[in-house]
């Protein structure tokens, strides 16, 4: 991979596995210095070792993006360590089953706190630095679930729908100030997203969905993200979908 992001400083949330981990590696391979945050400190430490073994520079900042202080601290420590933040990738997220029958409102709250509010917290902390620099990129990893709902996906779909529209609102607010904002919506991608689902039937269904033949690999998303960031500043890829070739559903 060419060093198209040489000299850039990135923060990736949810970097301990899946799309976040692959994105951090792809950014490092493209020349960026990468700060990474997630709850699993030991996995972040291992990722720092991988990046440094490739000749890159990385920093682990353990934290929970559902906690505002942790999310803001991840941005603040990135800037303190490297002097700036050019790229913010909001990849932290959680999926839970959520319907209205026998509704567990705490499940809705948990999903919203991580998927939506975690994104709000990091953006609120990063944008002032980007405005001061006069440049920046924010990419939020959403989901095709943000475009449609289902009997067991209302909590997750609602959170991703909210993220999609909040992100596009930021694009309109910040584009004139040289801050590009984008929503990246993966389809079925081989990650651990289903492993923490509490409902056993839904957990099995999602695990099968993301490991089916032809599922997108996390690195595919990371490489797409690097492509987006490598475009000329005049070009803001405001929304992009990456789905399996064999998935022909709408």
What is the count of structural domains?
1
Characterize the quaternary organization of these chains: single chain
Can you tell me the CATH topology?
Rossmann fold
The CATH architecture can be named as 3-Layer(aba) Sandwich
**Relative strand content:** 5-15%
The largest sheet, given as strand count, sense and whether it forms a barrel, is: 7 strands, parallel
Mean pLDDT: 90
Low-confidence regions: none
Q: How many strands in all?
A: 7
- Secondary-structure element order, N to C: EHEHEHEHEHEHHE
Under the CATH scheme, which class? Alpha Beta
Q: What is the terminal-to-terminal distance?
A: 32 Å
Read across the widest sheet, the strand sequence of neighbours is 3-2-1-4-5-6-7
Helix-residue proportion: 40-55%
Q: Mind telling me the C-alpha Rg?
A: 17 Å
What's the CATH superfamily, by name?
A: NAD(P)-binding Rossmann-like Domain
Shape: globular
């Amino acid at each position: 991979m060419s060093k198209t992001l040489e000299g850039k400083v990135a923060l990736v949330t949810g970097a301990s596995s899946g799309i976040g981990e692959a994105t951090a590696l792809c950014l490092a391979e493209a020349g960026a210095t990468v700060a990474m945050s997630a709850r699993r400190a030991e996995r972040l430490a291992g990722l720092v070792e991988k990046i440094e073994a490739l000749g890159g520079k990385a920093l682990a900042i353990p934290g929970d993006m559902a906690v505002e202080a942790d999310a803001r601290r991840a941005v603040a420590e990135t800037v303190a360590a490297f002097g700036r933040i050019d790229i913010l990738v909001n990849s932290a997220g959680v999926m839970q089953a959520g319907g209205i029958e026998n509704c567990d409102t705490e499940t809705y709250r948990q999903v919203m706190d991580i998927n939506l509010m975690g994104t709000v917290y990091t953006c609120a902390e990063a944008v002032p630095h980007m405005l001061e620099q006069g440049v920046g990129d924010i990419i939020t990893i959403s989901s095709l679930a943000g475009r449609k709902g289902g009997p067991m996906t209302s909590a997750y779909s609602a959170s991703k729908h909210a993220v999609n529209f909040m992100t596009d609102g930021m694009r309109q607010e910040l584009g004139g100030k040289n801050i590009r904002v984008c929503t990246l919506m993966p389809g079925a991608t081989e990650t651990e997203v289903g492993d923490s689902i509490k409902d056993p039937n839904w957990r099995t269904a999602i695990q099968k969905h993301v490991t089916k033949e032809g599922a997108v690999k996390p690195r595919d998303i990371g490489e797409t993200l690097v492509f987006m960031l490598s475009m000329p500043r005049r070009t803001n890829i405001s929304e992009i979908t990456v789905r399996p070739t064999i998935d022909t559903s709408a």
